[in-house]
Amino acid sequence: MVRLITHNLLACHVKGCTANNFPLEFKDVQVVLRESEFNPDFLRGFIPKIDWAALTGAARQLGDTSLPDQLPEMLDDDFLKTLHHVLLEIHVEEGIMICPNCKHNYHIANGIPNMLLAEHEIG
Amino acid sequence: MAPAVTSTSVPTTLLEAYEATHVHAIYDRIALHFSSTRYKPWPIIASFLEGLEDGWVGLDSGTGNGKYLPLPLDRPGRLWTIGLDRSRNLLQIAQLAGGTEREVVWGDVLGSAWRHEIFDYAISIATIHHLATPDRRKLAVEKLLSAVSPNHGRVLVYVWAVRQDEQSKRDIPTDPASSGSGQDVFVPWVMSDKTQVFNRYYHMFEDGELASLVVLAAEGLGLVVGSPSETAGLKGVEIRQNGWERSNHYVELRRWQT
User: Fold this and answer.
1) So which domain of life are we looking at (chain A) (predicted)?
2) What is the predicted pLDDT for the residue at B176?
3) What is the pLDDT of residue B1?
4) Domain coordinates of chain A in residue numbers?
5) How many CA atoms lie within 13 A of B136 on its CB side?
6) Which residue in the set A2, A5, A117 is minimally distant from B111, CB to CB?
């Protein structure tokens, strides 16, 4: 599955593509929503690693505008439940992720992103 | 009687094609049968994952059927381990490891499709022994070290050993010419119907070879090897465990900076 938790960690790794290579842009996506168990302790620990602008931008590309533009100071349960939904319940099953810098296309099929590159393309 | 493990020699060029034929294509062919034989987590790996903190994210580089993705079982969902593998057929199994949806990525352990040093931990179990040269195995360790936090990143690596335990059914041929640098071998995989045998390439590690590889990889990244230094402004990696169990060598590493 490509959920936004994974998307927030992925970056383009084409040889020489080392700046502006994150976040990848979604295109032509098919999205499925599926509930998953809410784990506030996981979320509190993970929040410092989130690139917030990348997360809200990607969520908007998938049609979800529930997150605030800035990470709130108060991490109450309502906010954590919204974050949980955006990070872990929106599954991109099919589509493309495009590098904002070199425009390399990474395809997603059956929920599995293809991040393979030919050896000569790897940095 | 299972077919024997046989010595092989690795070509000097076209290594990617060699691994594609003798490793990747085979795992795609044997995925279902292979997965049915790989379900029990090894205790040292389970205990490593149990020791990690809530909210941490990790990379399982060479996840296979994803058997480590659900761990730790007593705190489900408190860690997120993302599984990476070269075999798409194994990933389809890993996607549902433990009966819950997992995050998996089709990729190569020599790639680095991630934000630099973004993970809290990385494991690579029974994977880098499928890379065909010392340079490629060193690069795989460099990629693991660069995937994790420079402050607290933890890494666990397992590889097969030339030194097999008493219960092992395998007799590893030893080529005296390669003494001290491990053995390149083909290990047969017999399909359950017994009609097909696939020879997978392995580099079996000599005693001490895995730790030496870590030292070379750390040097390649400009990391000091040892416990955290008193001197400010240094980056390093500590080898916390360097062991052998049940026919495997393993190392547990921790990154630090001052």
Assistant:
1) Eukaryota
2) 62
3) 53
4) 4-121
5) 21
6) A117
Taking the C-alpha atoms of residue A2 and residue A115, their distance in angstroms, rounded to an integer, is 12
Q: Each residue of A2-34: pLDDT tens digit? A: 999 999 999 999 999 999 999 999 999 999 999
Look-up of token digits 């060699």 = B18
Residue in A4, A8, A39 to test binding to B, most B beta-carbons within 10 Å: A39
Q: Is the CB of A122 inside 8 Å of chain B's CB atoms? A: yes
Check if the beta carbon of residue B145 is closer than 8 Å to that of residue B215.
no
B contact set with A (CB within 8 A): 16, 53-57, 76-80, 82, 84, 86, 88, 91-92, 95, 100-108, 110-116, 118-120
pLDDT of residue A123: 63
Query: How large is the C-alpha radius of gyration of chain A?
Result: 15
Low-confidence ranges of chain B (pLDDT < 50): none
User: A63 by DSSP, 3-state: which?
Assistant: coil
Instruction: Tell me the per-residue pLDDT of A44-66, one tens digit each, with 9 for 90 and over.
Output: 999 999 999 999 999 999 999 99
Distance CA A53, CA A100 (A): 14
Cβ B91–A112 below 8 Å, yes or no?
yes
Q: Is the ipTM of this complex over 0.90?
A: yes
Task: Single out the residue of B214, B213, B223, B208 nearest to residue B255, CA to CA.
Answer: B223
Say if domain A4-121 classifies as CATH 2.20.25.10: yes
State percent of chain A over pLDDT 70. 99
Give the largest Cα separation in chain B, rounded.
Answer: 61
- All residues of chain B having their beta carbon less than 8 Å from the beta carbon of residue A107 are none
Q: Give the domains, in start order, of chain B with CATH numbers.
A: 6-257 (3.40.50.150)
